[in-house]
Amino acid sequence: MKKTVFRLCFLAFLGLSVSCTNDTIESERVEEVQNFNQELLTTNQINDAIKNSLQQSGRFYWKDASLQMLWSASQHGQNIITIGYGNSENDFEKSVASKSSEIEKQLLKIITDNESNPSEKQLIYSDPKLNIIDVVVKDQKTLYALRKNKNIRYIEPGDYRFFQFEAENGMMKSSSSGSSGCGFDAETLSATDYTSITPNAKVPWSFYKHNIPNAWSKSTGSGITIGVIDSGVSPNQSLLGSNFNNGDSNGRSVQKYGTYVDSIWPWSTSTDGPNDQCGHGTSMTATATAPRNNKGLPVGVAYNANLISYRAAANVVLEGYHEQKGVQNAFVGLGNNSAVKIISMSMGHIFSVGRIEDGVRYANNRGKLIFCAGGTSTSFTNFVGVIFPAWMSETVAVTGIKEGSGYNKCSNCHSGNEIDFTVVMERSASGNTAPVLSYYENQSDYVGGSSVATATTAGIAALVWSKNPSWNKDQVLNKMKQSSSLYPNKSSEYGYGNVNASLAVQ
């Protein structure tokens, strides 16, 4: 990654004492900044630096960016800065941190002391569960002072929109929203892509590649709750709503929440509800939990599992302040729900987002088994390996492969060392993907990529956990690994391969 080189000189610091129980925390004030490089980098320059880092190492973290780049990115994103703080890297939960309030006050004082023209609304948001604040910062010297503070875990631009700027700079043909998995189409299923079973449901061809129908004789997911973080659930598909208990699916519940705020203003707090306005979330919840219905429509993997859906973002590309905050809040909400065993998220970003990372770790610490999509590419991200947060050690990364012998990733799927499992979801002859409920009543559709692979694997996990309700997440995950085609070896591209669901519920 090309790094902007700058020299810092003539800096004076004023130590400000803040009492924190028996300790004293340093506060920094930068008096002179005339030699900071305050030339505003363009969004094209910033994006090139991000892509260069991804091409070289497969990762990009804002902590590795120069001060000039961090400041420029925040300038292009409404001057919003997200700060993760704490006494150590793992000190991200307020409930277990002893000095959260004191540190937060000290950080806000650093901002006030160093801003030439402080914003009237300096503090946008203070998270009630995590050590995170969102603030308005305009001066580069403020970022410098914050970066030097020992209680900072990360500082990131809170509203920098990589894909939007790629589109504006002519590097891709369409906006991120138009290229991010949304669609409301319905399609008539080919008769070769499903098998009809009682009472009148269609089993997707892909389920047979993982012996899911055979597993149903021992487990259907009863008693297990799957949380899906996505774009919500369609209000026009009753099989994921009022008719969730239909056919051979019974005694289960569906709950729908919304954490996404559809506003350009960072201080807006009203969500736009739980209803899917993209289509992607409907497909994912259907793949995992659609009922074994009597309407002639596709069934889900865990057709007797409970469902909790979160509309956390507008689409699958997690950029922008409200989408990233919405996903973080969804992870926290599901983490705090004792009924939830499994979380499935078929969304992500090409680089790390600190607040989402904190949310994932929060849910993981509460025993949730978290599945994330390894990445489904388009022309402008095909150089990226496994995406965030699937690359995190706290998540289980899944990708899709083509039908046939051996392992060949689907046309747009990502692979890499972080992948744990694969799902067969693309036909070798027709190129058709997995049948699924449509956004609209009494209609079906096809869905592909690592997205459907992730939701399918989450459903298999529910089958395993339902069969073994006393197990913890590690036992469930180990059973899935042991029941996979490549176990005990792990491929550098495809993990443990395809899970045999029937073997996993033995």
Task: Provide keyphrases for this structure.
single chain; 506 residues; alpha/beta; 7-stranded parallel β-sheet; 13 helices; 26% helix; 17% strand
Write structural notes for this entry.
The structure is a single chain. With 506 residues, this protein is of the alpha/beta class. The protein has 13 helices and 17 strands. The chain has a 7-stranded parallel β-sheet with strand order 10-11-9-12-13-14-15, with helices on both faces. A hairpin with a 2-residue loop joins β1 and β2. α3 packs antiparallel against α4 and α9 runs parallel beside α10. The longest helix has 19 residues. The radius of gyration is 24 Å and the shape is elongated. The N terminus is likely disordered.
Number of strands: 17
The helix tally amounts to: 13
Regions with little confidence, pLDDT below 50 for 5+ residues: 1-27, 174-179
Please give the share of residues in helix: 25-40%
Q: What characterizes the major β-sheet?
A: 7 strands, parallel
Write the layout of secondary structure elements.
Elements lengths: L17 E3 L2 E3 L17 H15 L9 H9 L4 E6 L14 H15 L8 E4 L5 E5 L3 H9 L3 E6 L4 H7 L25 E4 L3 E4 H4 L3 H4 L9 E6 L23 E5 L21 H10 L16 E6 L9 H15 L4 E6 L8 H11 L4 E5 L22 E7 L16 E8 L7 E4 L6 E4 L1 H19 L5 H10 L18 H4 L2
Parallel strand pairs: 9-11, 9-12, 10-11, 12-13, 13-14, 14-15
Antiparallel strand pairs: 1-2, 3-5, 3-6, 4-5, 7-8, 16-17
Helix pairs in contact: 3-4, 8-11, 9-10, 11-12
